Amino acid sequence: MPILNWIGKDKVINHHLDIPFHTLNEEYKFTSPQPSPKGEGVEVSYSPPLEGLGEANKIIHADNLLALKSLLPQYEGKIKCIYIDPPYNTGNEGWVYNDNVSDPKFKKWLKQVVGKEGEDLTRHDKWLCMMYPRLKLLHKLLADDGAIFISIDDNEQASLKLICDEIFGNRNFIGTFIINSTPNARDYGHIGKMHEFCMFYSKNCDELTTNHLPEIEKYFKYNDNKGGYNIHPLYNSNVAFTPLNRPNLFYPFYLNPNKKIDNDFYEISLTQSEGLVEIYPPTSVKDNVQFVWRWGRIKAEENINEEIIGYKNSDGEFRIIQKMRTSEKVIRSIFNEKTNTSRKGTAEVEEVFNKKTFSFPKPVKLLEDILYAATDKNSIILDSFAGSGTTAHAVLNLNKQDGGNRKFILIEMEDYANSITAERVKRVINGYADKEGTGGSFTYYTLGERVLDDDNNLNPNLTLAKIHQYIWYADTHTAYNGTATAEGYLGKHIYTGIYFNYKPTEVTVLNEAYLTNVKELCEQYIMYADMCLLPEKLLQKHNIIFKKIPRDINKL
């Protein structure tokens, strides 16, 4: 597999491991309007800060690299679908990690992470340095049956494909969508650009499932007593499937040319008799490979002359065809509808705010189709380059359409995170212009304090609940949803009991007296304290792993 190298790669390839964990501070909670007690109009509800994150809609105003790391304790391996629309790196855009490296945050980051080499980076090197650690964290957050979609254009499409192959695995590359984003073309340069790309990767292609998109008002050419249908050949046109590896799918049908049924179709049988025409799957014209059927004998027998029938094509050849009654289709690789253009996305945001507010937002229908195909009704969807909030808009629309309970997590680092991103979501929930509100709620967060300081000691300003979340995740890589006992018992993970003997202003000791607090019988224990006075033999006898609480007890 080809590997892409660039200046600074060796410094960022594992940078996601060095990113410190931060907490998230809840600023407010927004819910759909509720009737006031007096019946005078509506109220918008804001709640006081809550402890813990929970699995609810979130909008996070923070650097997405830090915010993604902060989500790991709650969401590692839980995100069903990720959609991101990162900077395209055109050379003309004003993204915070811009091509001239004028943003002080990026200057500082390059100096700290890449070092002196950062002074020689091209804009493409810089873009790759920015994207790589973010994609590594997104990979960790993605569920095993999850999918990630990344919008991009020609500037970085080739580079993005190579680093995604490296991070997600090239076998998990599902395909690239072509989006007709500018039907009238951008007439400058040597090509009038009309399209963008959207790459589609899975976490594990063996576990990936997708949904068919509904076809509204689909036209059916034929009708029978069951309703409308179109026809499709029964043979499998994939040359990878042949009688050698799919012998159960290679067998003859027998067609009666003298017995027509509805709409000039012909009666067929799986039993040979005089006067019947024997029909096998055709061979491919290009490779002369023998095709096989898509259905085995048993399924064919159950549906014969009902859902599969004989047909004479325009060349006068007899074929076996299937009646296709579905009003659904597999998501197509080309998005050519006017609802998927940049102009449509811009108009949608203008309608929400009643003025031009955001440049080049993605259209809602594009996101609705992607999310419908890649999620179920209870999925968690993440967008770490949230922009104007189109992803949340699409999630809320889908939930309203099918009664789903999909949840969104948006991350936006720009200052408009509240005034545009969150404000758009509020208006979609409440209703705007002539659009009825979707209902729903979200919680707005900003980046909180680090969990560990520069010396890798626990931040004493953290609440116990947030410390417990971090400790549990560090040992289990799962989310902590329990409540610790007074003795510091966090709970049992598989066969290991975890105890966190911590007091903010006192030195704690693991000794025989503390062991009397152990009530839950476990095969193994992880026990935290500032000091351990138990002899090694006793630790081994009870399968106890002692871990020192990461703090400087000299300061207590």
Which terms summarize this structure?
556 residues, alpha/beta, 10-stranded mixed beta sheet, 4-stranded antiparallel beta sheet, 14 helices, 31 strands, 25% helix, 26% strand
Describe it for me?
The chain is of the alpha/beta class. The chain is built from 14 helices and 31 strands. The strands form 9 sheets. The chain has a 10-stranded mixed sheet, with helices on both faces. Strands 10-11-18-17 form a 4-stranded antiparallel sheet, with no helix packed on it. A 4-stranded mixed sheet has the order 26-27-29-31. A hairpin with a 2-residue loop joins strand 23 (431-432) and strand 24 (435-436). Helix 10 runs parallel beside helix 11. The radius of gyration is 29 Å and the shape is globular. The chain starts with 8 loop residues before the first helix and ends in an 8-residue tail after the last strand.
Q: Roughly what percent helix?
A: 25-40%
* Main sheet properties: 10 strands, mixed
Shape: globular
Count all strands and give the number: 31
- Rg over CA atoms, rounded to whole Å, is 29 Å
Span of the ends, CA to CA: 54 Å
- Helix count, DSSP H or I runs of 4 or more residues: 14
Oligomer: single chain
Q: Kindly report the average pLDDT value.
A: 89
Q: Tell me the strand percentage band.
A: 25-35%
Please list the strands of the largest sheet in the order they lie side by side. Answer: 1-25-4-22-21-5-6-8-7-20
Stretches where pLDDT is under 50 for at least 5 consecutive residues are 35-53, 97-102
Q: What structural class results from the helix and strand content?
A: alpha/beta
